[in-house]
Every structure is written in C-alpha cells, then in structure tokens.
Amino acid sequence: MFDVNEIRKDFPILQREVYGKPLVYLDNAATSQKPRIVIQALTDYYEQYNSNVHRGVHALSMEATDKYEEARHKVAKFIGAPKAESVIWTRNTTESINLLAMTWGRDNILPGDEIVVTQMEHHSNHVPWQKVAQDQQAVLKVIPLTKEGTLDVSDIDSYITPKTKLVAFCHVSNSLGTINPVKMLTKKARAVGAKVLLDGAQSVPQMPVNVKELDCDFMAFSGHKMMAPTGIGGLYVKMDILEEMEPFMRGGEMVLEVWNDRATWNDLPMKFEAGTPNIADAIAMGAAVDYLSDLGMDNVRKHEAQLTEYALTEMQKIEEIDLLGPMDVDIRGGILPFHNSEIHPHDLGTFLDREAIAIRTGHHCTMPLMRAMGLVATARASLYVYNTEEEVDKLVSVLKDALRYFGDGAKRAKRTR
Ligand SMILES: Cc1ncc(COP(=O)(O)O)c(C=O)c1O
Which of 23, 68, 219, 275 has the fewest CB atoms found within 10 Å of its own CB? Predict the structure, then answer.
C-alpha cells in the first residue's frame, strides 16, 4: 500500500520545524531527503565493519567488500544494467560525465566530429563537452527548444548527422521538468553511428529507468538526488565500450601489476576506481535503492505525476506568475519552475523560506537555457515521493501572499517569453 503519510515517517528531517513552522521541503531536484534506513546504513558501516575494501584478508575488510559490491549489484539491477561491472562508482553526475569526457571523449572524438547537446542541459552535461570540442577541434551543436520548453526536433536531421559522434542529453530537465524523447533521439543517433549519453540525474530518482530498454551507451546519475548520501553516484557504460576505455585516474586499486616503467590494469570496474573509494556512501546508496525498490518506481512516478498535475492546476490559477515547461504531465517530471518579471526569484524564495517552504531560486546551473528564454533566474519548486497536496496548497497560498506583499509590480508582470 502506497501511503504518503507512512512514507513521511521514514524521513526524520520531515518531522522538523523551521522558524517554528513545519518544514515544507520542495527542493528535491537539488537534493532529496534521506530515509532512516540510509542513515542507519552509514552508522552500521562506521560502527560495525569500517574497513577498506578489496585488499584485506581480515573479516571486517571482507564484510565491507561484500556490502560494497552488493550495493553495486543493487544499483545495476535498479537501472537495468545487464552487468554490475558496467556501473562505475563516482561522486555524482558531474564526475561521471567528466570521467567520460576525459576518457572516451578524448579518445574517440576527432577533429571535424560533432557532439550534440540540447539547450536545456545542466552545466555538467554541457561544459565538459565544450572542453572536448575545443581540445579535439570538434563541433558542439545545441538542439533548440520550442516555446513550451520541449526539444524542437522539427529539424533534428540537421543536428544529428553522419558527423555526430555523441548525442548527450538530460532524460528530465532540472530547469523545465521536460521528459525528453529518449527512444526517438537514440534511434536517430544509432542511424548515424553515434553514441548516446543520458544524464539521468533527475530521472533515475523519480521514474523507472532501464538502460537496456532505452538502449543508451552511457548514463550518469547522482545518489544524493535519490535518497542516498552526497558524494556517491554512478556512471553506466555499455560493457563493450567500457572494455576499450582507458582508465580515468591512475594509482592504487586500479592496477593489476606495476613495474618501474609501466603498469597493467585491474579488471572492471576497479580499473576505473583508483584509490580508496567512498565505501560507506556506496553501501548507503544500496540501501536507498532497496527503499525505492520497495516503494516501487512505478508508484513513485505515479505519485509524482499526480502531484505535479495537481500543482500545475493550482499554480496556473495564479495570474501573476508564468509557469515554465510543458503542461502535459506525460512529458513532465515533478519540477515546477515559475517566474514573475517584476519580482526577483530570490525575493520570492526568501518570502517562502520565512514560512518554512524550501524552494530553489537562480539559474539552476542552466545559464544557456536561461539566456535562450530571456531570463536571468527562476524560482523552482520540485516534488518527491514524500510531498503531499497539503504542501502544494501551502506553497500556493504563501506564494499568493508574497505576490500581494510585493505589490502592484507583480500584477503588471507579463510574459517574457
Ligand atoms: C539534470 C542534471 N544534471 C546534472 C546535475 C549535476 O548533478 P550533481 O551536482 O549531483 O553532479 C544535476 C543537478 O542538479 C541535474 O539536475
């Protein structure tokens, strides 16, 4: 049985008050809250079997190694990866994409090749590819958007061409909520022999994601957005590509044999995990995946879609704000960006904060998108599985108070796009 009020009890932080009022946490796209079993997994590791992995013959080290690798298996299963070795632990989505850019990108993208990204990419899926394009004398192309905030694929064949080596795009946009047409873009990429990188930072936490079904070559994701601790994330790479990739960092753990002048590499995935890894957080990510799997990702998505629909309906009634992104919840995640041309989003965010409502304001690490929309910043509420209709009502009610407080200016605001 899916009961939000029961789920909320699993998250200690949701019981706290801010300024003497119950916390309304609507900043989930930035980072999610953590259930007790994740916090407990961290404590268990440090209290019961804190030890380094892979190199010890003593009981604690073997226990830590088993749990660490078990967590990798859980994460691999969760994203539909055929083999656990195809999931490399990283710190987060940003590190995953940089790893890929500095290894596969540098070795496979050659002068004159094209890399395709979209106008809605997070900086972490845009800036690394700028660097690869500059270094390799390749061309970076950016698929534009429609005014609804979806990809404008009307001229897609002029973006994805026989020169394309990589198509890199977010599954769900953190700034618009848009769910992108992965299968269509992947098919286009395949037709010209290009590889596909999916930025799963926002999708893996909120919907069933299966890399095999989606047929992407690479997928990056962050643990902290899916109930795991900060500092742990993953990069999925198709096995045949991973086997050919050069190591990212060199040092302990990733080597098989070392001589004075050369070295050979360890098996996958250790080849990509130089140095002592983030053991505790990886194990806790396994616990987060257990928790989400117990809820059922279909249920997580269903709840999010229902709550998003409700929020969109209520927020659309507020005349003074523009809601950004597609209005159809079939192609939208639980991300609710809004804007009033006369009030700075930070002012709205600060007003909401005084009522214990946590949202995010700013460019959300998507400055090229903001520029394309003619905006500097937006306010963004983002939902997760523990949010309720009552919390959306509170957001709407306090937002109305804010608009009243900031006065006539808000009423004069008009669409800027
Ligand atoms: C779509 C998207 N990609 C990438 C990132 C970067 O994630 P991280 O900061 O965990 O590396 C984020 C974070 O907000 C995101 O929303």
Answer: 275
pLDDT digits (tens, 9 = 90+) for 267-326: 999 999 999 999 999 999 999 999 999 999 999 999 999 999 999 999 999 999 999 999
Number of domains the chain is built from: 2
Are residue 208 and residue 310 in the same domain, yes or no? no
Q: Are residues 359 and 247 both part of a single domain?
A: no
Q: Is residue 170 annotated as a catalytic residue, yes or no?
A: no
Q: Could you tell me the two tokens for 402?
A: 């804010």
d(CA 201, CA 173): 9
Domain that holds residue 367: 4-28+296-412
In angstroms, the CA 359 to CA 64 distance is: 37
Nearest-CA residue for ligand 1 atom 14 is 30
Out of 166, 232, 365, 381, pick the active-site residue: 365
Contact predicate 60/47, CB 8 Å: no
- Dist. CA 329–CA 178, nearest whole Å: 9
- The answer on 307 and 283 residing in a single domain is no
Q: What is the pTM of this model?
A: 0.97
Q: How far is CA 374 from the centre of its chain?
A: 24
Q: Which residues of 58-82 are buried (b: 16+ CB within 10 A; e: fewer)?
A: eeebebbbebbbebbbbbbebbebe
59: pLDDT strictly greater than 80: yes
Final residue of a domain: which of 263, 293, 323? Answer: 293
Residue ranges around ligand 1 (CB below 6 Å) = 29, 92-94, 122, 124-125, 170, 174, 199, 201-202, 222
Cα(174) to ligand 1 centroid in Å equals: 8
In degrees and rounded to multiples of 5, residue 270 shows phi and psi of -60, -30
C-alpha–C-alpha distance, residues 152 and 359, integer Å: 29
CATH number for the domain including 304? Answer: 3.90.1150.10
